[in-house]
Write a structure and sequence with these properties.
23 helices, single chain, 74% helix, mainly alpha, two-stranded antiparallel ribbon, 1% strand
Length: 485
Amino acid sequence: MDAAVSKRKTSYWIHLCITILFMFGFRFLSAPEPITPYGMQILGIFIGLVWGWSFCDLAWPSVLAMVALGISDYGITSAVFEASFGQANLILIILSFLMFAPVTESGLSKWLGMKLLTVKAVKGKPLFMIGIIYFGTLILSVFVNGLVVGIFMMQLFIGIFKQLGYQKGDRFIPMFLVGMFICTGLGSILIPFRSMPLMVFGVIMKAGIPVNNNGYFIFAILVCVLLILSWLLLIKLLKCNISPLKDADFTAFEEELKTPLTKYQSMLLKIIVAFIGGIIFVGVLGKAGENPFLNTLNSIGVYGVMALAVVIMLLINVEGKQMLNLKTAAASVNWDFVFLYAMAMLMSSLITDQTTGISSYVIKFITPIMAGLGTFWFLMLLGIVTLVLTNIGNNIVVIFTMTSVVVMMVTQGLPINGMLAATIVLWTGLVTGYLTPAASVTAAMIFGSDMTTTKGALLQGVIVMCYWLVSMAIFIIPLGMFFLQ
């Protein structure tokens, strides 16, 4: 046996043993106050998961963690499976994989990619083209569920990059994907009347902290533009390989585009456009209340639109071919990612659960430190703590935990700009979770992509964290101090 192969196999088994040791042995260590014995069980499983994902595989550590959680104080294994696979977002992800599979199988994704790459305005200007993609993703995500936008865009461009000759592990791939997913996150918080800003600002308003919606909107637009432009600059500074986008000979693409779409492809494109329009329609008009029509739209939501689109594709036959063949489409589902996501989202919510004491343990140390800082450094430290926590726990839970810390400090009389502090928490929590697969849905998608490596995804997470800290210091906090008075 080759020495290098033997060494890799030995290393793999060592990492496997470490993973098991954390999952099943860490719980027997003494728990420092205020972490509870249950918290030590959860922490051990979480560390084991991250270790297994990082050095071994994606699927089996996820399933093994379900077993480990099943013999913890959480509950029996069947309850773990129910909580893991009963998540609405997981169903949405699987339906998205199934629905968008024909787009790739039929060659429609290739056609869409060729259309984009042969537009005269972007030809030979890769950074300009990427910028257009990012701004388009941002605008689309204001109206459409960012997760759906992200899955579609990821599948579309991964196919394009493969066609252009990019290989698994190329540095440009995770850089591009993270930039795109940052834009889907920004789209969900650009307008102060979207769900997450409304919830966060609702919390601080109840505590008597004033909210400046007009100032927030101006701040958000400026910061979004600067974040996208600075990310494009970072792609250039890190010398990512964008040559295939610049130097590719698109003559063959232009010739292929002269061939009209088949009836099947044309119908598929219409369904996709109608699907996007349907999501925008229910998202903008749907509202719970007394109006029966608007209330029905609200009840349907993005999940209902997705389900209806799948049903229509199953019913329609074009050119003797079913629009969606579940047998062939199932092969396009990234099952490694499905298992990873199922466990990552469950664990990230458990690790920040109050019954574990882990969040209290962290806050116990940071609150006294924050209280003695000036405005700028307080906001920087608040962002750093949120950044770290959102990369190891459920970002929604982290956002509300840190917002509660802000409210507590303001109500105790500390001279803090409550709205700006809450905004830093909101933006950091929703945009920066990429260090581990458990950090966010989009991080899990990048770790699970067949064009990225675990090492490359981890490095990308570190890059995002450094990028965010620099961005906070240079323009996010200064602009916030000016507009969010």
